[in-house]
Amino acid sequence: MAELLVVGSVALDSVETPFGQVQEVLGGSATYFSCSASFFTRVRLVATVGQDFPKEHVQLLEDRGVDVGGLSVAAGRTFRWSGAYGYDLNEARTLDTQLNVFANFRPALAENLRRVPYLFLANIDPELQLEVLHQMRERPRLVALDTMNFWIQGKREPLGRVLREVDVVTINDAEARQLAGEPNLVKAARAIAAMGPRTVVVKRGEYGALLLDDGAFFVVPAYPLESVFDPTGAGDTFAGGFMGSLAARDRVDRGTLRRAMVYGSVMASFTVEDFSLNRLARLAPHEIERRYADFEDLIRLERA
Ligand code: AMP
């Protein structure tokens, strides 16, 4: 089992879906990611929050065994995001993004974090992603990155630089099209691979996810759920299951990547059942294995 380091946002989210709304609840790309990945391996988190960040949120991560030694508390307000979804839950509409303490965050990685073999650069300013990557003493065995429209529009150039240095990109479908400037998803995935990463994972919400690895495609469906309340965090939770399962096996090959796609889908299917990290916080490992087995049934082909 290998350790996993993540840098990304830790946030207070306000979210509106057709099924309800919440104000200033725990969110953030690194939060969802680390909570999800903690079911698979030891996770170390690098991020910053403001003095207004509730202590019980940190406790939730600690209860999941996440190392929060790299979570600094800075003067100022915590990162805030607010978003809304219509009946089509696949597309989040950002209403407001306040970087707050992330505007001036300069991570200085403690020595014990600089040799962690699996690294996830969760959705955050690509310049920060680069800073963390460049502080590693040895090239990690696997580096993956996630991003979104906010940074594709606002930080295109540094995003291009960090893309050249990573092995895996996880990105949602609309953002894959935007990044590649290409409406066809298959062509978009290939175009993104041409920017550097050997592996591209396109997350497609209720339609599942697409893997392009070394030129070969693989797909998984989303778990058929009747109770989707809030898709926020599904992408980061997917990435947590994906990277967590790879780090747990400490092996990256076609087989482990395909299983990682299923673990990603399993974890995301839990997150969307409730707001914030509520479902992940009460998730039990046996539920993950049961849903993984359900997935195997879901996609098995009988021989004619
Ligand atoms: P997703 O998994 O794509 O639904 O990600 C949702 C999470 O991303 C929310 O909890 C937000 O706090 C966080 N987020 C939204 N916008 C940004 C941004 N520009 N940079 C970093 N994190 C963000």
List the helices and strands and how they pair.
Elements: E1 4-7, E2 11-17, E3 20-27, H1 29-37, E4 43-50, H2 55-63, E5 67-74, E6 79-84, E7 93-98, E8 118-121, H3 126-134, E9 142-146, H4 149-154, H5 156-163, E10 168-172, H6 173-180, H7 185-193, E11 199-203, E12 209-213, E13 216-220, H8 234-249, H9 254-271, H10 278-281, H11 285-299
Parallel strand pairs: 1-4, 1-8, 2-6, 4-5, 8-9, 9-10, 10-11
Antiparallel strand pairs: 2-3, 6-7, 11-12, 12-13
The structure holds adenosine monophosphate.
- Measured between the Cα atoms of the first and last residue, the distance is 39 Å
CATH topology: UDP-N-acetylmuramoyl-L-alanine:D-glutamate ligase
Which strand order do you get reading across the main beta sheet? 5-4-1-8-9-10-11-12-13
- Oligomer state of the chains in this structure: single chain
Number of helix segments? 11
Apparent shape:
globular
Percentage of residues in DSSP E strands: 25-35%
Number of strands: 13
In the CATH hierarchy, what is the superfamily? Ribokinase
Rg result: 18 Å
Output mean pLDDT: 96
Corresponding CATH architecture: 3-Layer(aba) Sandwich
What is the chain-wise order of helices and strands? EEEHEHEEEEHEHHEHHEEEHHHH
- Ligands and ions found: adenosine monophosphate
